[in-house]
Amino acid sequence: MKTRNFGFPRIGAKRELKKALEQFWAKEIDAAKLIEIGKDIRKKNWEAQSILDDIPSNDFSFYDQILDLIYTFDCLPKRFRQLQQKENLNDLELYFALARGFQNETSDVKAMEMTKWFDTNYHFIVPEFYKNTQFSISKPIKIVEEYKEAKVSGFETLPTIIGPVTFLWLGKEIDKGFHRLDLLDDLLASYSVILDQLLEHGASKIQFDEPCLALDENPLIQECIKKVYQHFAKEFPQLDITLGNYFDCYGGNLTTVLQLPIHTLHLDLVRCGEQINDILNHELFNENLHLSLGIIDGRNVWKNDFRKSLEVIKKVEASIGSDRILLSPSCSLLHSPIDINLEDEQSKIHPEVKPWLSFAQQKIEELEQLKVLVAEKEPYQHPLYVSNQIDIQSRITSELVNNLKVQERVKNLSAKESQRASDFKSRKVQQAVALQLPLLPTTSIGSLPQTKEVRKNRSLFKRGKITHEQYSDFIKNEIKDAIRFQESIDVDVLVHGEFERNDMVEFFGEQLDGFTFTSHGWVQSFGSRYVKPPIIYGDVHRSEAMTVKESAYAQSLTERPVKGMLTGPVTILQWSFVRDDQPRHKTCKQISLAIRDEVIDLEKAGLKVIQIDEPAFREGLPLRKGEWQSYLDWAVDSFKISSSGVKDGTQIHTHMCYSKFNDIIKSIAAMDADVITIECSRSQLHLLNAFSNFKYPNEIGPGIYDIHSPNVPSVYDMLDFINKAKIKIPLEQLWVNPDCGLKTRGWTETKASLEAMVNATKKARELFTEKVS
Prior knowledge:
The protein is of the alpha/beta class. The protein is built from 27 helices and 23 strands. It is globular, with a radius of gyration of 26 Å. About 50% of the residues are buried.
């Protein structure tokens, strides 16, 4: 029996990659230094996994693994080919331009679209395909170079790559009249070049990740999967191929997969444990197929229960023998914090909770420990097993976990608590009187730039270097400056800037019972954007107000409405590491009641506009449509519980970003937010079609410029965007705003962008009013 992994966190134990990327983008280090830091992270990662039989290579990326393939196969959007010719960009400049956009005195090119990696909070760059797209490889091949690099460092690795079907499936067609999977034959030729070179340099095996197989059964995907892996088996018979799928079962794709000429099949037994019985009992399961058992949760932080894992392993071993079994995490550990041992004595993790946790490094160790236990005649007497079960039992019996008052409140929820007093049409009249907003109201999404000074003062306060009063005064000054700036450029609905907040989920989790936190539990969201998800270990409860002080202070500074800013229950759930000892919907209802209490307190404090962000609403959607309605029912209900305790004259906003809305638009409408803001800039208003076709009844702010790019949009571009938006959505329903929060941007570009946005809106009001007249 062997152990393997196929993805380790790429960010570095001390976030070395983030720091290096941001220094490179700021021109504080050169490309050689950035490349050197990347090599150092890769070597340390291989060393950290050296106890395993199979260590992955090519799981590292400077930005995103799909972007790596776009660049490797030279399938760039046409606008970037033109940019490359015009600006003579070097390799790294072009690579990062794809992800971040490019702007100088002579060029202004928008970045490629981002969206969520299946149902995770990781964002990938969406490939853009044309009818005449051709794939080619003209540069050193990343997967080959990193395999060679590992070999020089003394590590024989398992090269791992996103499979061709998933790569094409996750892209989008730019031209009409073709399907992106029509490009498969040409793409296969480029994949074959990669395999040729890997073989040339001594590789004997490779793993292809095809998570598109976790989606609903699709005959087109099935035919393409057959074509691809029959082709590889015929052309490269000496290569052992692992097919990896994760985040769900193979489902209706299982029959297709079991007929493939592959060496190893990977199973996510955390998300779908029952599939092992389907496979072992399937008439097409053959005596040569090896199974990679994904029994360690790659997406959560809870210690593996060795008793349950050994039951599964022993059952499979009895059926196929130990030499055809590989023990593995359920998916790449990209989604896990790196190492619990980085949490020092000053760690924020509750001391009773810490023994229940397992991060990427511990998950690697758990695999090796399970391998040891399987080989033992009396595994249940072994110290490794006994120690594991002590920790598992202590969590089950802990008084920290259960709060009977919270459980009773959820149990007694009534339908009335998830309904506003009146319908939107009636509320809109009252809100118009209360807020007195112009046509095309302007606002921003919530956060404003978190400067070095902001981060420095937060750090000083947390380390006890400045007093609470000093820190509070600093935050008040930042809020005051933000309000004055927004007034000076004539924004209609202001925000306080969220300077007191670290992360939009972590900030709330720190103030809610049932949560604990890490000091170093960073996980990549995209590029150099990392988050430290809270850990929900028990029943959730709000003991005191969380945001009222800063929001009420901001409102006291101005006659204009200021938004109270909250994170919604579904997003807090999705962007946390959630307890796995009760259904997720129960935990979500607990969070929704805590947010409801905060919304009511904000209204009492004089806030007339309250935004409850739900950017992860679609992210929680199960991968298979048969399971959608159950999720959508409790997710919508959770949002409405949090938002429905206010009077009709209080305007409720929500925000969603980087999502596909078409297939859940009815549920979004059912949330009944008075105003929804969405990301539209990178998709060039494509996402707005769902709202337009549905005739969305409430108000909507399509984000008119991309905050994930340093580019400053022009007044003309934003005016053009507003003009296009009003074709899809009636003018009286439209708001004008950026596509997301401005936390990661600098003040110079933020001020220029917001001022241009307001000026574009004023011109639009003049133009549209004249036309109406």
